[in-house]
C-alpha cells in the first residue's frame, strides 16, 4: 500500500526522485536544551550506478517513512492554506470601509480610503500648503456664495440649498465621508404685525411714531411697555454703575458694540429696566445711510433656548422648558435716524467721555414717554449641519474640527460667506494634499458647516449637545473660520491657552499679505487675548464641551460696521477691503498650518503647561483678598495645594513625554489621551449642564467660574449687605476641588497621583 502511494506521488511530481528527512536528536554537552538536526537524503533507485552504490553505505528505507511523506505534505499544504486565510481575513478586518474584501464600495456611502504614501515632514507640508493656496481665488468663491445664496436666513430654502451644495462638493472632493445632521429648533421671527417705537405725551393726547423697524432682535419678549427712556452708553455693567439716573421702571437705549446684545439686555434687566432699544451711532459705526436696519439676538447663551442642555433632534420629546438666558423684557433695534428722533425729545448732554455724537441725550423730557411694541413670534424650523471628514491614518478616532457659519440675516458676505469660502477651499486643498501630495495625517480632520449661527451658534451647540458624552474624548480642537476677514491692520486671536504655543508658531511663519512682515509682532500678545464671546461659535466648544478652541480675524481697531445689516454685501466688503483675496489667503494659511500641526505629528501639540500661568494668576488675584478671607475664618491653603499639584502633574507629564519612545504608538496614545482631557477637566463637575451649561471655570459663565468668585469678593468690599458668605464658601471650595480634579486627571492612574491634600 505504501509503495503504491509513493509511486502515485512520484508520478504527481513529474517522476522526480522523492526525498525524505532524517531526524536525529542530540543533547548539547554544554547546555540544557536539545536541538533538532535535519539531514536530507535522496532516495536511491534500483538503476543507480553500481560504483556509486559501492562508495556509499546502503540505507534501508523503511516503509513507514513513505507514509510520513504523504501525511507531511498534506499537513504542510493545510497549514499553509490555514495561515493564508487567517492573514487574509485579518487584513480585511483592518480595512476601514465595511465592505467585503475585494469588493468595490458603493458610491452612495461617499467614503474614500486613501493609500498610504511615504511620510512627509513639516517643511514639505508647509511649502505644499503655501503653493496650493497661491492657486486659489478666494474672492470668486466669496462672490458666488454672496450672489447665488441670498437671502439665507436659517431654515430658509437658500440656506438648505447651500447646505446640500456643500455636501455635494465634499463628496466630489473625495473626502473620506460626507454627511449631514438635521435638527428641529425654535427661532423667533417678525410677525406680520409690525414692531413699533412711539413717543407719547404724559397726558396721552399726543402719539408720535418714531419707527417701524425693519430689523429686530430674536428671542425678545413679545409685549408692549411704556416709560421714560434713559441712555446707558454701551450698556456694560460699568456704564450702568456710572449713570446719574435710575433705570428702574424705565426703558433703556444703548449703543451697539463692546458687548453682545444679550449681555446689554441682561445688565438692563438686572436693574429692573422694562425694555431696551439698541442703535448704531455714527462715531462707532460710520455708515452714511442713517436708515440701515440691523439684526441680533438677546439669548444669553447658545443653542436652541427651548431645549436647554439637550439636542433638538426630531425624535426627542422633552417636557416644555426654556433657557434661563432668555430675557423677560422686550428688545428692539432701531436705526440711527430713529435714535435721532428720540434724542429730539430727550434732555441732558451725553458725557464727552462717551465719544459719540453731540446730538446724544441722556433722558426723556418730563412730559414725554416712549412706547415700545414687539410682536415677534416663535417658529420651528429644520436646520442642517453639513460635515465632511478626511480620516487619519493612525488615530482616526481623534479629530480636529474646522467650522464656519453658513446662514445670515441679510446678505452676510463678511458674516458667513468668507468663512464658508475658507472652509470649502481648505477642504479642497487638504483633499489634494492627501490624495495627490502624499500628506498622511495621523488624526482626522472634520469640516463642518453650521446653520442658525445668527441666532446664537444654534447649529454648533445642538451638535455638541447631541454628542456630549463622547465628543470630548474624540475632538481635541475646534478652529472657527467665522468673520476671519474684517480688515487688514490687526491680527486678533481668542483661544484656549492650550493652543497659545501653536498659534504663536503659526504667527511667526505666516506673513502679513499687505506689509510682508510676520504676524508675530508683539511678544506680549498672549496677555491681550480676549475671551470668546457668546456670539462666537467657538465659545460653546470651549465653555460647554471642554474642547480647546480658537477664533481669529484680520480686522481694524474699530468694529466692521456692516455685520448683521442689509449692507453686508460682497460689493461693500470688497470696497472696504480691496486686498480681500490676499487677506483670505492669509487666514486660510493660518488655519491650514494649525490643522497640519495638530494632525501630522505623533505627539499632540497642545501646551497644557500654559494653564499653570492661568492658575497662578488666579491665586495672585485671590491673595489680594487674604484679609477678607481670614476674617471669614477661611484660608487659601487648599487652593495653594491644588495649584501645586497641578504644577507637579504637568511637570510629570512633560517628563513622561520626553522619556517616551516616539515609535511606540501605545505609549504616545496614552500620553495624548492625558493631554486631551486637560481642558475638559476644567469643566466644573459640581453644576448641572442643563442649569449652567457653560461649566468651564476659566471661560464659562455662572457663579462657579473663577471670575465670579473674584467679583463676589469685590462685592464684600463695595456692598457688604449684598455679600453672601455661604455662597462664597461654596464657590471657593468647588473652584479648589475642580483645579485639584484637573491635577489628578492629568497625573494619570490613581496610583500615580501624588498630593498631600
What does this structure look like?
The protein has a 7-stranded mixed β-sheet, with helices on both faces. It has a 4-stranded antiparallel β-sheet with strand order 5-4-15-7, with helices on one face. Strands 8-9-10-12 form a 4-stranded parallel β-sheet, sandwiched between helices. The chain is globular. It contains 22 helices and 21 strands. With 757 residues, the chain is an alpha/beta fold.
Helix content: 25-40%
Strand-residue proportion: 15-25%
Class based on secondary structure composition and strand pairing? alpha/beta
* Nearest-integer average pLDDT: 87
Shape: globular
Observed structural traits:
alpha/beta, single chain, seven-stranded mixed beta sheet, 38% helix, globular, 22 helices, 757 residues, four-stranded antiparallel beta sheet
Task: Summarize the model shown.
The protein has 757 residues and is of the alpha/beta class.
Topology of helices and strands:
Blueprint: H1 2-12, E1 19-27, E2 34-42, H2 50-55, H3 63-94, H4 122-133, H5 138-148, H6 157-172, E3 177-189, E4 196-201, E5 207-211, E6 217-218, E7 224-227, E8 229-231, H7 237-241, E9 251-255, H8 261-270, E10 275-279, E11 296-297, E12 331-333, H9 336-343, E13 346-349, E14 361-364, E15 368-373, E16 377-390, E17 395-405, H10 413-435, E18 443-450, H11 458-466, H12 468-474, E19 475-480, E20 490-495, H13 500-509, H14 538-544, E21 549-555, H15 570-576, H16 580-600, H17 610-623, H18 626-631, H19 637-659, H20 665-680, H21 706-718, H22 725-747
Parallel strand pairs: 6-11, 8-9, 9-10, 10-12, 17-18, 17-19, 19-21
Antiparallel strand pairs: 1-2, 3-16, 4-5, 4-15, 7-15, 13-14, 16-18, 20-21
Helix pairs in contact: 1-3, 4-16, 5-10, 10-16, 13-16, 17-19, 19-22, 20-22, 21-22
Amino acid at each position: 500500500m505504501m509503495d503504491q502511494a509513493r509511486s502515485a506521488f512520484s508520478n504527481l511530481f513529474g517522476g522526480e526522485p522523492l526525498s525524505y528527512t532524517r531526524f536525529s536528536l542530540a543533547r548539547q554537552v554544554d547546555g540544557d536544551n536539545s536541538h533538532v538536526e535535519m539531514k536530507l537524503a535522496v532516495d536511491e533507485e534500483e538503476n543507480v550506478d553500481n560504483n556509486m552504490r559501492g562508495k556509499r553505505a546502503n540505507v534501508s528505507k523503511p516503509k513507514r517513512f513513505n507514509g510520513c511523506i504523504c501525511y507531511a505534505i498534506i499537513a504542510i499544504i493545510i497549514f499553509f492554506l490555514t495561515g493564508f486565510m487567517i492573514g487574509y481575513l485579518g487584513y480585511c478586518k483592518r480595512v476601514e470601509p465595511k465592505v467585503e474584501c475585494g469588493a468595490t464600495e458603493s458610491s452612495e456611502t461617499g467614503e474614500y480610503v486613501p493609500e498610504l504614501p511615504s511620510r512627509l515632514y513639516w517643511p514639505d507640508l508647509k511649502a505644499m500648503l503655501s503653493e496650493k493656496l497661491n492657486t486659489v481665488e478666494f474672492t470668486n468663491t466669496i462672490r458666488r456664495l454672496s450672489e447665488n445664496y441670498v437671502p439665507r436666513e436659517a431654515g430658509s430654502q437658500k440656506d438648505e440649498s447651500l447646505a446640500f451644495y456643500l455636501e455635494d462638493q465634499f463628496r466630489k472632493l473625495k473626502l473620506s465621508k460626507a454627511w449631514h445632521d438635521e435638527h428641529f429648533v425654535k427661532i423667533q421671527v417678525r410677525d406680520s404685525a409690525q414692531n413699533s417705537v412711539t413717543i407719547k405725551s404724559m397726558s396721552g393726547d399726543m402719539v408720535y411714531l418714531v419707527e417701524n423697524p425693519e430689523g429686530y432682535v430674536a428671542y425678545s419678549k413679545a409685549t408692549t411697555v411704556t416709560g421714560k427712556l434713559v441712555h446707558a452708553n454701551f450698556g456694560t455693567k460699568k456704564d450702568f454703575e456710572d449713570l446719574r439716573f435710575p433705570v428702574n421702571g424705565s426703558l433703556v437705549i444703548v449703543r451697539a458694540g463692546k458687548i453682545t446684545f444679550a449681555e446689554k439686555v441682561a445688565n438692563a434687566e438686572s436693574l429692573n429696566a422694562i425694555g431696551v432699544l439698541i442703535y448704531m451711532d455714527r462715531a462707532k459705526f460710520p455708515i452714511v445711510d442713517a436708515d440701515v436696519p440691523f439684526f441680533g439676538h438677546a439669548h444669553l447663551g447658545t443653542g436652541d433656548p427651548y431645549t436647554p442642555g439637550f439636542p433638538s433632534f426630531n425624535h426627542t420629546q422633552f417636557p416644555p422648558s426654556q433657557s434661563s438666558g432668555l430675557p423677560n423684557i422686550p428688545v428692539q433695534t432701531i436705526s440711527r435716524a430713529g435714535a435721532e428722533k428720540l434724542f429730539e425729545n430727550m434732555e441732558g448732554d451725553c458725557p464727552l467721555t462717551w465719544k459719540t455724537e453731540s446730538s446724544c441725550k441722556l433722558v426723556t423730557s418730563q412730559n414725554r414717554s416712549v412706547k415700545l411694541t414687539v410682536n415677534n413670534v416663535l417658529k420651528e424650523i429644520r436646520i442642517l449641519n453639513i460635515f465632511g471628514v478626511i480620516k487619519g491614518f493612525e488615530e482616526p478616532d481623534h479629530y480636529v474640527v474646522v467650522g464656519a457659519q453658513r446662514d445670515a440675516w441679510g446678505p452676510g458676505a463678511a458674516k458667513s460667506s468668507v468663512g464658508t469660502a475658507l472652509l470649502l477651499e481648505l477642504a479642497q486643498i487638504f483633499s489634494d494634499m492627501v490624495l495627490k501630495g502624499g500628506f498622511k495625517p495621523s488624526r482626522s480632520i472634520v469640516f463642518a458647516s453650521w446653520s442658525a449661527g445668527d441666532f446664537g451658534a444654534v447649529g454648533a451647540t445642538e451638535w455638541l449637545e447631541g454628542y456630549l458624552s463622547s465628543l470630548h474624548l474624540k475632538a481635541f480642537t475646534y478652529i472657527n473660520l467665522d468673520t476671519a476677514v474684517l480688515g487688514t491692520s490687526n491680527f486678533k486671536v481668542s483661544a484656549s491657552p492650550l493652543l497659545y504655543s501653536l498659534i504663536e508658531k503659526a504667527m511667526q511663519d505666516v506673513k502679513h499679505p499687505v506689509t510682508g512682515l510676520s504676524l508675530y509682532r508683539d511678544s506680549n500678545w498672549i496677555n491681550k487675548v480676549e475671551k470668546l464671546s457668546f456670539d462666537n461659535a467657538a465659545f460653546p466648544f470651549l465653555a460647554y464641551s471642554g474642547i480647546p478652541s480658537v477664533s481669529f480675524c484680520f480686522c481694524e481697531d474699530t468694529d466692521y460696521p456692516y455685520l448683521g445689516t442689509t449692507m453686508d454685501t460682497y460689493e461693500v466688503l470688497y470696497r472696504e477691503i480691496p486686498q480681500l483675496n490676499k487677506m483670505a489667503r492669509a487666514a486660510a494659511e493660518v488655519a491650514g498650518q494649525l490643522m497640519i500641526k495638530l494632525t501630522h505629528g505623533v505627539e499632540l501639540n497642545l501646551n497644557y503647561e500654559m494653564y499653570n500661568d492661568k492658575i497662578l494668576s488666579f491665586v495672585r488675584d485671590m491673595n489680594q483678598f487674604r484679609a477678607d478671607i481670614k476674617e471669614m475664618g477661611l484660608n487659601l491653603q487648599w487652593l495653594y495645594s491644588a495649584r501645586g499639584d497641578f504644577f507637579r502633574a504637568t511637570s510629570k507629564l512633560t517628563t513622561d513625554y520626553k522619556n517616551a519612545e516616539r515609535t511606540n504608538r501605545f505609549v504616545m496614545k496614552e500620553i495624548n489621551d492625558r493631554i486631551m482631557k486637560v481642558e475638559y477637566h476644567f469643566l466644573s463637575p459640581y453644576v448641572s449642564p442643563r442649569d449652567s451649561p457653560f461649566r468651564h471655570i476659566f471661560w464659562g459663565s455662572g457663579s462657579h467660574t473663577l471670575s465670579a468668585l473674584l467679583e463676589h469678593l469685590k462685592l464684600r468690599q463695595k456692598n457688604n449687605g449684598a455679600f453672601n458668605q455661604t455662597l462664597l464658601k461654596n464657590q471657593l471650595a468647588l473652584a479648589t476641588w475642580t483645579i485639584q480634579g484637573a491635577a489628578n486627571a492629568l497625573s494619570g492612574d490613581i496610583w500615580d497621583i501624588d498630593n498631600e491634600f
